[in-house]
Amino acid sequence: MRSAIAVGSVRQAVLKKSIGMTYIDLLTDVRIYHAKRLLAEDPTQRIHQVAAMVGFDDQRYFSKVFRRAAGCTPQQYAASIPRKPANKKSSPKQDLSEEKFTGSR
User: Fold this and answer.
1) Which bin fits 37, alpha (ψ -120 to 50), beta or left (φ > 0)?
2) Rounded Cα–Cα distance for residues 90 and 88 (Å)
3) CA 37 → CA 18, 30, 43, 50, 78, distances in Å?
4) Is the distance from CB of 70 to CB of 32 less than 8 angstroms?
5) Is 50:38 a contact under the CB 8 Å cutoff?
6) 47 burial type by CB count under 10 A (0-12 exposed, 13-18 middle, 19+ buried)
7) Neighbours of 28 (CB within 10 A)
8) Is the alpha carbon torsion for 42, 47, 52, 56 positive or negative?
9) Separation of alpha carbons 64 and 81, rounded Å
10) Is the pLDDT of residue 4 over 50?
11) Is-contact 10 41, C-beta < 8 A?
């Protein structure tokens, strides 16, 4: 019977060979992707809140990892996102007529 460590090592080797990155690298990429989405949705969010939402306990470490992955700090990323003008009140019917529908996501 194989030990758990040996099986884990084999899985990591297969993952790295198939996608070119380790499990930790993949997890980090997914976390940074979600952090970017959160910052794009609301650039005024606090960085420590975004860090916690994507699984980082330490804001400083999150900022370091984000900078390494994205090439800028989370603050710089959030500042680079164009702000949408304030929505004027409109009827729901008008909103539906202006929405563009496509057959795919």
Assistant:
1) alpha
2) 6
3) 26, 11, 10, 10, 10
4) yes
5) yes
6) buried
7) 19
8) positive
9) 20
10) yes
11) no
Q: Which residues does 82 contact at the CB level (< 8 Å), separation at least 6?
A: none
Residues 38/53, Cβ–Cβ less than 8 Å = yes
CA 88, 92, 93, 96 torsion-angle sign: positive
The encoded tokens of residue 14 equal: 């297969």
pLDDT over threshold 70, residue 46: yes
pTM of the model: 0.67
Angle (nearest 5°) at CA 82 between 58 and 61: 10
